[in-house]
Amino acid sequence: MPGENLSRDEARERAALLSVDGYEVSLDLRSAVGDGDGEPRTFRSVTVIRFRCNEPGTSSFADLIAPAVTSVSLNGKDLDPGEVFDGSRITLEDLAAENELIVDARCAYSRTGEGLHRFVDPEDGEVYLYTQYEPADARRVFANFEQPDLKAPFRFEVRAPEGWTVWSNGEGELTDGVWRFAETKPISTYITCVVAGPYHYVTDSYERVFENGTRLEIPLGALCRKGLAPYFEADDIFLITKQGLDFFHDHFDYPYPFGKYDQAFVPEYNLGAMENPGLVTFREEYIFRGKVTQASYESRANVILHEMAHMWFGDLVTMEWWDDLWLKESFADFMGAFSLVGATRFKNGWITFANRRKAWAYRADQLPSTHPVTADIRDLQDAKLNFDGITYAKGASVLKQLVAYAGQDAFLEGARRYFKRNAYGNTRLGDLLSVLEETSGRDMATWSRSWLQTAGVNSLTPQVLLDAEGRVAELAVLQEAPESHPELRPHRVAVGLYRRTPQGAVERYARVETDVEGARTVVTELAGAEPPELVLVNDDDLTYCKIRFDETSLVTLREHLGAVTDPLARALCWSALWNMTRDALLPARDFIDLVLRFAGRESEIGVVQMLHAWANSALVHYAAPDWRATGERLLTAGALSELRAAAPGSEHQLAWARFFAAVASAEDDLGLLKGLLDGTARIDGLEVDQELRWAFLEPLAAHGVADESVLAAELARDDTASGKRHQVRCLAARPSAAVKAQAWAQVVESDTLSNALVEATIAGFAQPSQRELTAPYTQKYFAAIERVWTQRSIQIGMDVVRGLFPSLQDSPETLAATDAWLEAHSDAAPALRRLVLEARDDLARGLRGQACDAEAGA
Fold first, then answer.
1. What is the reported pTM?
2. Which of 307, 651, 714, 838 is catalytic?
3. Is-catalytic flag, 307?
4. Nearest-CA neighbor of 309 among 251, 237, 355?
5. Any idea what the Cα angle at residue 763 is, between residues 760 and 769, rounded to 5°?
6. pLDDT tens digits, residue range 266-282?
7. What is the spatial distance between Cα 354 and Cα 337, in angstroms, rounded to a whole number?
8. Residue 491: closest CA among 395, 398, 364, 373
9. Which residue from 244, 239, 237 is spatially nearest to 263, judged by alpha carbons?
């Protein structure tokens, strides 16, 4: 549709012309239940918008994506819907100084997680609804001005099936069959929210008395589907919530401004979570049906705190346009880890940040689509794709560097001033930099140009020169940048020197904080130090960079990585070694060898699980093809050995069990998995719960050991929404040409599957052991993606283009086919081309890694 992809220029023009006084939105959701009439299921949406126009007599438009509009009235005059509504926009001509627009529409329930999503629980037939709007899907539910800088108060009322409960951003009550909600503060359209259905709901409250005697009470709620109620750990969710509210009140000096605080865990959710004020929504996978490691609990706590930080960074103060998306996401990502460590039981949150979040950033920042943290967002499709590792994790890493550069107290005081000056308003980059300059006394413009307005990641390498007595004569830090993004940035870093103790531990004996600038920086404070066996140039992870090692350090890590006693230092070394593998500087077989020798000694369970993912990726994408079978045998044997050696019932045992299943392919190994499922085999302390059963079944299905009847029997055992997703993934994983053809047709040629089942089918389709089976789909992929992008929602388009790219057909021929498509489709949607370019880059990087690995084995 011509107007569906709103441009930045259009948004700026409309914001200069209009200001919005308020919305009244009435939804009738009673059509959500029942059999329907055979037509696409819709609901009635009536919206009243009161707004002003700075230039009376001019024209503008409102946004709405709906199958039908019943009536449109502007300032008491009825307009012909057929003339003013084109499927995505309502033309508004001859505006007055003060205007009232009333739109009565039939809007569609969603099956893609965009707009108002409708889910039918297969376990009990109950229907559950929730909304998800970011960046611009509120227009699928009610008529509006869909851009972040046209904030307004909202009043919602909802008619729902009898017996349902409805939640929205404000407090609600049911009177005369209608749920009516208190008016919100001025907020953007994309953070309004409605959740409705027979959800399981638990309540609590938070109280805080401030130093001035003011008392704040916040009603708390947490909700999930009834089928998940037995697994719902509301007490832990409320604990983290209260700890977070205390932390942010202590540091922000601005009381939580949005009344209540509900948290809804909803099905078939595309994101991790969404920061709707007063009603945060989360993917229900954060409710754990089986045993998980503490890394999962830490991840859930981090997400809770990330979304809570948004109440200030994003909801109270919002970016004008998506160029400054970092003003909310980077801050929330940083604050999630900052508060996790400062307020909760997860004191090693910065280790997870260094090991997991920054890995996401490093990958994104080396893609051809890399962009500055403050990005150039031309339109809504650009915005959708920029919820990426740069906006989140690199931005958060840059903020961590800013804290080291400006000082924590100055940083937090800047945040406090920022909230008070811009409450309920919209900002740009300069608004934040100005307060940080005030509080820190630092030149924020220069810092911003280097860190926020340029792309790419620097590499820092130590250079050690020893004197005649063997002491450090000079230690320098060398900084490099890729040719495509040659910026050499100022880095505030800690340089740590490590050596082995008589007991064999590798421990730090010297540390200096210094400013690294330019291509070579001499760290004068370390002259005369005892000779190091390991130099860590970003000790304590203060900056954002790729760490490299000198030869002595690399030899030490190859032999003694597991003996590094500090868990953060160890995690940083692992991350650096993985980056070297991705950059074809370390053969994949060497990285896998390091994992096999040292991962079993790793104390941090989150690092262990990350190493499992990296080792698997090294095998699948970076190992030389003729060594893969050997690598698979080594990984499987190593995983089984660690599984048997792990403490019975421990989270390490669980992690190694899952990794063993992920790499198992030999008959004996598959036989063990089958035995663990049917009870004929046993590993002391390993409880094979339902979630672990599905993890064991996928490799059995992929290798032809578990057929359709086995999977049907397992679904009967676990006839739930989660079970259905697992079954669909396993069905698509089976090694059959007919299976692959059916999976392809269900995802590419049909739109009957929900977003969650599309995701599950794609996950099952591409199996590393089935490269020959999926080879025929390379050309089919390139023939289909432009049509899919045009005809399907952007979320499904992204899932298909990313998920079905033939990355397992890792050959120069696939690279050439990708280049041919890009050359022939220079006029394709920029967002689509970006996705293909990113996949091409991953493929080319994998081929370079394979060449490096083959050379090592020659």
1. 0.96
2. 307
3. yes
4. 251
5. 140
6. 999 999 999 999 999 99
7. 10
8. 398
9. 237
